[in-house]
From TrEMBL:
Protein name: Class I SAM-dependent methyltransferase
Organism: Speluncibacter jeojiensis
Swiss-Prot/TrEMBL GO biological process terms: lipid biosynthetic process; methylation
Transmembrane segments: none
Gene3D superfamilies linked to this entry: Vaccinia Virus protein VP39 (3.40.50.150)
GO molecular function term, any single one: methyltransferase activity
Family: Belongs to the CFA/CMAS family.
Coiled coil: none
InterPro entries assigned: CFA/CMAS, CMAS, SAM-dependent_MTases_sf
């Protein structure tokens, strides 16, 4: 039975076997936003839709049946059992955007559900091994220690960041900067925007030649090298071994070894103190909300009186919930990651004894950053697949597209919080007013 057949999943007779297109219709109100085709030859949805989904194998059906929602869809897409049609390889954003803007899926009546199971066969409900890129569920990670212990954090960072330096270069571009850029104009390039972000952080921290900067979660050392080129002495730390090796090599290649160093280290193991400034970009998402008092207390203890800190991280638009990553994020992208609102972060910064000076939301800039990373990935798709395999490349394409939608729709934000450790008498030694240009 095909799209134009008069019988539907809702009125099919008891003995009628449903096509896969009819099964999809059973879970919608009949107005699908995209074209759907399947390996059994059936189809549904508007014939002139610019984008669509092709269900290519029975395994895809099992993924969708055993993990309804985004996790099942992700498994089927990452494994290649579902294909996005009408889009460039490596850029599912137009498809996800069409699906999320007209979300109309529902749970069908029990009689229709029985017909679905009868048509697909009971075997479709038998769990199938997920793609190898999927991390263990939370309850199985206990072997690596409690949530946000040093070992478990190291394992989570390894899962996300120790993919391939060459792969990240294809996606991130020459700056090798994996945090939100700041676009000085709407038509600025990604590289211009990353340079602007580093300048903004440098200026907000009021750094001068000879100052000491600690960059926590330094990635491939872009901020480390930016500051060192301007005469600042910088220590960067990261829990990703490949990042540390790459960053230290880049430091030596630029002749910055006398000013900069990147260590493969947990931030909690940094013995030095008395820093003039601390930067943390894209790190707070990984440490866990329950660790905020320890984290920002570390900032306070490692700064000299009058020293500044800047925290740059993804947040929720609300503060009243402790939110862990959804299944897709937790299993494929950020194991054990947690997000909260900027208000909660500011509260914890203040509770640590630091004085908040300024905060701003860069949400539109992160949507643009993800757009440009996705453009890089799609433009280098064949090379990316050769480097890490198609499944891993698909994970990242899905992350970039989903993340962009999240920032577009204000489901997530990006906040920078600037603070200072006051002297015992309450003074800070800082200029009056805003000393950086934005």
């Amino acid at each position: 039975m095909t799209l134009n057949a008069p019988r539907t999943a809702n009125n099919a007779g008891a003995g009628t076997k449903l096509t896969l297109a009819q099964v999809i219709e059973a879970f919608s109100d009949g107005h699908l936003p995209v074209r759907f085709t399947a390996y059994d030859g059936s189809a549904t949805g508007p014939a002139d839709a610019p984008v669509g989904l092709h269900l290519g194998t029975p395994r895809a059906v099992s993924y969708l049946a055993t993990a309804p929602g985004e996790l099942g869809l992700a498994r089927a897409y990452i494994s290649g059992d579902i294909e996005a049609t009408g889009v460039r390889p490596g850029d599912p954003y137009p498809l996800l955007k069409a699906m999320i803007e007209k979300r109309n899926f529902r749970r069908p009546p029990i009689g229709v559900l029985a017909g679905v199971v009868r048509s697909l066969g009971p075997g479709v409900l038998r769990p199938v091994a997920p793609p190898p890129q999927e991390a263990r569920p939370t309850w199985r990670r206990i072997a690596a220690g409690l949530r946000h212990s040093k070992l478990r954090d190291a394992n989570a960072i390894h899962h996300h960041y120790d993919v391939s330096g060459d792969f990240y270069r294809l996606m991130l571009g020459p700056s090798m900067t994996y945090t939100c850029a700041v676009y000085p104009t709407a038509d600025a390039s990604l590289e211009e925007a990353q340079e602007e972000k580093h300048r903004l952080v440098f200026d907000k921290l009021g750094l001068q030649p000879g100052d000491r900067l600690l960059d926590i979660g330094c990635g491939w050392g872009a901020m480390v090298r930016y500051a060192a080129r301007r005469g600042v002495r910088v220590l960067g730390v990261t829990l990703a071994a490949e990042q540390a090796t790459w960053a230290q090599r880049a430091i030596e290649d630029e002749g910055l070894g006398d000013l900069a160093q990147v260590r493969f280290s947990d931030y909690r193991d940094v013995p030095e103190s008395g820093f003039d400034a601390i930067s943390s970009m894209g790190m707070t998402e990984h440490i866990g909300i329950g660790q905020y008092p320890t984290y920002f207390g570390f900032f306070h203890d490692k700064l000299r009186p009058g020293g500044r800190m800047l925290n740059h991280c993804v947040t929720r638009p609300v503060n009243n919930a402790r939110r862990r990553g959804q299944a897709l994020m937790d299993r494929y992208l950020f194991p054990d990651g947690e997000l909260t609102g900027s208000g909660r972060i500011i509260t914890e910064v203040q509770n640590a004894g630091l004085e908040v000076l300024h905060e701003e939301n860069l949400r539109p800039h992160y949507a643009m950053t993800l757009r440009d990373w996705a453009e890089n990935l799609a433009g280098n798709w064949d090379a990316a697949v050769d480097e890490v395999g198609e499944g891993t490349a698909r994970v990242w394409s899905l992350m970039l597209a989903g993340g962009r939608l999240g920032f577009d729709r204000n489901h997530v934000q990006l906040h920078q919080v600037l603070a200072v450790r006051p002297h015992d008498d309450g003074s800070t030694g800082l200029p009056l007013g805003q000393w950086w240009r934005r």
